Amino acid sequence: MSKQESGAVDPGGAVQGCCPGLLRTPLGEDESVELARVFKALGDPVRLRLLSLIASRDGGEVCVCDLTPAFDLAQPTISHHLKLLREAGLIASQRRGTWVYYRLLPESTDRLARILTRAAAPEAAGA
Amino acid sequence: MSKQESGAVDPGGAVQGCCPGLLRTPLGEDESVELARVFKALGDPVRLRLLSLIASRDGGEVCVCDLTPAFDLAQPTISHHLKLLREAGLIASQRRGTWVYYRLLPESTDRLARILTRAAAPEAAGA
């Protein structure tokens, strides 16, 4: 458990500003908690399929009435999964008349994509 | 629960070949199960920080002896989190002498970044 081989890792203090990239600098504790909540929302097959159905729909919006028939699940279960995606900031909803409509919040998925993208040339950066 | 407003979503059959993009075509059931497992592995603050420490380390490899002191957690807990990251295909490990060394499997995070990236011009694609 000693540090003799290559020095202890300092996990704090490296995350500054927006979106430094998970793979470039050690993630701070606060950001890891916030980010884990978003990834956890994606960590379920039904929620992934819901997000994918919403995101890939032409027009950018899907009625909940069109999402439910795509799953062999009860409406309250679908609604619960949609709520978790909404609370994670991945989708937004709007009620119009009888139905609720869902749309992707692309800035959220853009952020995740950016966070998971490697630096172009890490070796050259410090030279 | 009816489909009258915009037609039912067909979630099947749209996923072909490698990595069609979660946001471009509806995800199939099998891929959603596999992908959810990877996102679930990322859905924990300690695992995110471990992955970030491993990925951002110069030289690309971190001794477990350097990871443990960065957390206020017991060695078996850290090992358990590392095992889940490994089982999700995000990191690889190699024992050398006393210590186990971990490195990022960048093709995994590249894949996630690609899956979360929007199509450049979705409207123009079908014209």
Low-confidence spans of chain A:
1-17, 122-127
Distance between the termini of chain A: 33 Å
Give the overall form of chain A: elongated
Q: How is the quaternary structure best described?
A: homodimer
Q: Give me the side-by-side strand order of the main sheet of chain A.
A: 1-3-2
Strand portion of chain A? 5-15%
Report Rg of chain A: 19 Å
Helical segment count of chain A: 6
CATH architecture of the domain at 43-108 in chain A: Orthogonal Bundle
Written description of the protein model:
The structure is a homodimer of 127-residue chains. By secondary structure, the first copy, chain A, is mainly alpha-helical. The first copy, chain A, contains six helices and three strands, in the order H-H-E-H-H-E-E-H-H. Chain A has a domain at 43-108: Winged helix-like DNA-binding domain superfamily/Winged helix DNA-binding domain (Arc Repressor Mutant, subunit A, Orthogonal Bundle), CATH 1.10.10.10. Helices cover 45% and strands 11% of the residues of chain A. In chain A, helix 2 (45-56) packs across helix 4. At the A-B interface, helix 1, helix 2, strand 1, helix 3 and helix 5 of A face helix 1, helix 2, strand 1, helix 3 and helix 5 of B.
Give a summary of the structure in a few sentences.
Chains A, B: Residues 27-124 form the HTH arsR-type domain. Two copies of one chain form a homodimer. The first copy, chain A, is mainly alpha-helical.
